[in-house]
Each structure stands twice: as C-alpha cells, then as structure tokens.
UniProtKB/TrEMBL annotation:
Residues 34-126, 204-314 form the Nucleoside phosphorylase domain. Coiled coil: none annotated. Pfam families: PNP_UDP_1. GO terms for biological process: nucleoside metabolic process. InterPro entries: Nucleoside_phosphorylase_d (IPR000845), Nucleoside_phosphorylase_sf (IPR035994). GO terms for molecular function: catalytic activity. It comes from the Bacteria. This is Menaquinone via futalosine step 2. SUPFAM superfamilies: Purine and uridine phosphorylases. Transmembrane segments: none annotated. It comes from Piscinibacter gummiphilus.
C-alpha cells in the first residue's frame, strides 16, 4: 500500500470516528444497540436473567451488567440497589458503557393513591422528586433574594402549579394542632445537549410516549397467588395469596425521594397536591439521568403496600412470602418486551421530544 493510500485510509477512519453519533462514542464496554433494564429488586432481576439468552456478564466497578437477548430484544440488565444515589450512579454507568437506545426501570413501590391495591403494577406517565425542597421557616413564602418566591440568587426555583403559584408546603397535623414544616417543593436544573449551556428547569420527567402507548395495550397475566403459594399436592395456601386480583394501572404521576416513606400524612399530602400514584426511591433519579442523556425511558412498579400504612396487612406478607411481588413485576416487563418487539413496522425508534420534562399538572 502506498503512503498516499495509507494516509487516505487513516483520514477515512478519522472522519468516520468524528461523525459517529454520541451513542457510538460513549459505549466504553460494548456498542450493540440495547434496551437497558435497571431493576431495583434482586428477585425480579433473577427472573429476567433466567429467561435471557446468549448471556454475557460484564463487571464494571464491582457491578454486574448482563447482556443478552430477552423476548427478542437485545438487552443489558443491572441491579441498581436501593436509593436515589445508587440509581443515578448505575444508570449513568450503563449509559457510558453500553449503547442504550431506551431504558426500563422496574421494582417494588409503596402505593400513594388509596384506590390502588397490594399487588397492582403501576406504569406512571411521569416522575417527580417532591423531596427536592426549599426548607423555609413555617409556611411563609420564601424570599431569600429579597422578593417573595425569588430563589434566583441561590440558583434555585420553586415548583409551581398550573396557576403559576408555588405548590403548597407540607403541613403536619400534630397533637396540639397543625405544624407548618416549611417544606416547599423545588424544580431541578438540567444541562444537556438541548438545554446547554444555560440549562433548563423541570419538575416532572414524562416517560416516552411511544413506550407508554405499548404499555397501555398490555394485558399481562397477573396472578393473585405467588409461585410459593402452591403446596406440593397442588392446592393453594390462601394465606400466601392477596385478597383482590392485581391490576395493571397505566398513567398518573410517580414520585421518588431519598426517604423510606412511613408517614401517612405525607402520603396523603402527595396524593392531594400531586395526585401521585406511587412512591419509591429510584425511578425519578433514573428519569433525570435519562433526560440529561436524551434517552427515552419507562418504569414499572409493583405495589407492596400503602406507604405509611399503619398496622399489619396480611396482603403485604403474602406478596413477599409467596414470590408474587417479583412474579407479577417480571410478567409485566416481559409482556412489554414481547409487545415492543412485535410493534408495527415503521414505528419510530425515538419520538421527537419524547423525553422533554414538563411541569406539574
């Protein structure tokens, strides 16, 4: 090969690398296009892994990422662990090391809407972080920058409702009357390829509409009794079954925070102010990372109880002891992947503006 031909080949390679998409350049470990599945519950991840074909394990910073094919889709599966911080870390690691076209999050959550049942699987259409707050003295309007509601000198913004007014702070009913906590919800600031360098402010992170449409059409076989509820003789142990038939519920707002919610008053506040459906500790963090990277996402959450519920609930014990929590959650995830693979030809891979967060509704 002549010197000029060698130079031409090198220039062609350099040009190809320079014009490659950001997704091509950022996959540090493997560049096959995949759906990323982040699971917050180990037992459910085990069910998904057991059905994954052509598995290959990658250990990255001590975490196990498993690539393979699940229901006809190329996937990479990882266990996040509990908490917003763990979810943020593992999601960004996945996006850095693999070429992730779309993200799925699945796990267990507490119910917020009292109409929901133990065992229901929810698919919210948006996620928020209500514990991102400005903690003021009492319920006086924050005015740290000299003007009521102005937080700009601190680099912050309050979350507002459709009327443009700040969302009401949480008030705790104490033994001697109302206690004004001064907890005002804030928006989050996001800088990405679309909003940079100034960034933009968001409260909600809507899920991908194309993925949500597929979820709305699902009718997965949700069980009332987990796999461990069946005795050796084939009969059912009703103590290991929930009382009412679980349902798939699509829509509404999911919320995440760095706390394990065991306060009924705060749960009622979230339902009243945000019409929240479910509360947990991972998904909104994944949603924030997904938006910052321009990756569409969707999340499934199996409801274990009513967050902050008081007293023992036999359904909660049955849900976990029988394996129903992970079984129904996995059933929805697998049904979605099957439907996603079979969606009509010509369906767009990524809807324009599909991951653009909005404001409270």
């Amino acid at each position: 090969m002549t010197t000029f031909r060698r130079l031409g080949c090198l220039l062609a390679l350099a040009l190809a690398f320079a014009t490659a998409s950001a997704a091509d350049r950022r996959c540090l470990t493997e560049c096959t296009p995949r759906i990323g599945i982040v699971s917050a519950f180990g037992a459910e991840a085990d069910i998904l892994l057991a059905q994954t074909r052509a598995k290959r394990v990658h250990t990255i910073s001590g975490k196990t990422f498993t690539t393979g094919v699940l229901r006809g889709n190329r996937v990479v599966i990882v266990l996040s662990g509990v908490s917003m911080v763990n979810s943020t870390l593992v999601t960004q690691q996945m996006l850095d090391h693999f070429r992730i076209e779309r993200l799925l999050m699945s796990g267990i959550a507490g119910g917020v809407d009292p109409a929901n049942r133990v065992g229901d699987v929810t698919v919210p259409d948006r996620w928020a972080m209500p514990m991102e707050v400005f903690w003021n003295s009492g319920s006086a309007l924050p005015s740290p920058c000299g003007t009521p509601l102005d937080l700009s000198c601190l680099g912050l913004q309050l979350a507002t409702g459709p009327d443009g007014q700040p969302l009401p702070p949480f008030v705790l009913e104490g033994p001697s009357g109302p206690v004004e906590t001064g907890l005002y919800m804030r928006r989050n600031h996001v800088v990405n390829a679309t909003t940079g360098p100034k960034g933009a402010w968001y409260f909600d992170y809507p899920v991908d509409p194309e993925m949500l449409a597929v979820a709305r059409a699902l009718s997965p076989p949700l069980e009332r009794c987990g796999p461990k509820a069946r005795r050796a003789d084939g009969t059912l142990d009703e103590k290991l079954c929930v009382r009412e038939q679980p349902r798939l519920k699509v829509g509404g707002r999911g919320v995440s925070a760095t706390v394990f919610l065991a306060n009924a008053q705060y749960r009622e506040y979230l339902h009243r102010v945000l019409q929240a459906q479910t509360f947990e500790m991972e998904t909104a963090a994944l949603a924030h990372v997904a938006h910052a990277n321009g990756v569409p996402y969707l999340a499934f959450r199996s409801l274990s109880d009513l967050a902050g519920g008081e007293g023992f609930d036999a359904d909660v014990g049955a849900l976990f002891a029988s394996g129903l929590a992970e079984a129904n959650e996995a059933a929805v995830t697998l049904a979605f992947l099957e439907a996603w693979r079979q969606r009509p030809a010509g369906t767009s891979r990524r809807a324009e503006g599909s991951n653009r967060p909005g404001t409270p509704r």
